[in-house]
Amino acid sequence: MVALFASLSTAAVLLPLFVQASFAQSSGTFNFLTYNVAGLPPIFNDNGVPGDKGTNSNLIGAQLARGAYGIVHMQEDFNYHAYIYATDNHPFRTPTTGGVPFGSGLNTVANFDWDNFRQVKWNRCNFNSGDCLTPKGFSYMRMKIAPGVEVDLYNLHADAGSDTGDSNARRAGIEQILSHIDANAGGRPVIIGGDTNDRWTNAARSIDLLTDAGFADPWVELIKGGSYPTAGSPADACAVPAASNSCEVVDKVFYRAGDLVTLEATEWSYQSSVFVQPDGNILSDHNPILVEFSWTS
């Protein structure tokens, strides 16, 4: 009788756990936006954007809230950071590291919580484009998009400019990120987004280091039919706003599936017509990029 009671007690404990495991989420979707928000003080760079930067930053934050984007990476979020956060309502937001010259300009807002957050400065920069005046680099976080499902996220702002020192610094930066991924990913899926200051048509490009490491560019997958542009070929660079999804910008998204969680990009688009001022003018000199992802565990 005692043995029977023990067996029934064990079953009573295990049954709810079994039912919970049986109905655990095994697939889902989320979207990801990356946007260089042009938050430098006008004395350094007006970015060719009409209007007041504080007002424009308020409008950016309001649109982030209205779009309810799952994950948003921002670059150049320097001196007008508070204006964006004042009108955004995402529940999870990184704290600012400060304006120029103290901050990295990298921030993330999301509908999902994360841990392991850190900011990493590039080991190498080139002085000619002012890249060494701020601690540019990348940020890293491990985001929980569903119970038991984690994705490692990287937000980057690469060295600008086009001379040899710039291209060497960009290559060193990609190598630095890949080294960090190798040391930390542990078989999890990874998404990298941000301002690479690089294009597939650049003769001295370094972003192909990412594809060599197993990452995919969803712009190439979904818009270019899987055909990567040739290095050194004529550039089809986008204006702002972008006339179509087929032109190329330096802002990129890369992703890689994990050992136990698959990851697939299903849609890719510029959000240039969404992030605008009331009179239709642009809010930044960069086109925001939106990628829809699906996952299966």
TrEMBL record:
InterPro entries: Endo/exonu/phosph_ase_sf (IPR036691), IPPc (IPR000300), Sph/SMPD2-like (IPR038772). The keyword tRNA-binding does not apply. GO terms for cellular component: cytoplasm. Residues 1-24 form the signal peptide. One of its GO terms (molecular function) is phosphatase activity. One of its GO terms (biological process) is phosphatidylinositol dephosphorylation. Residues 65-224 form the Inositol polyphosphate-related phosphatase domain. Keywords: Signal. The keyword Signal applies. This is Inositol polyphosphate-related phosphatase domain-containing protein. It comes from Emericellopsis cladophorae.
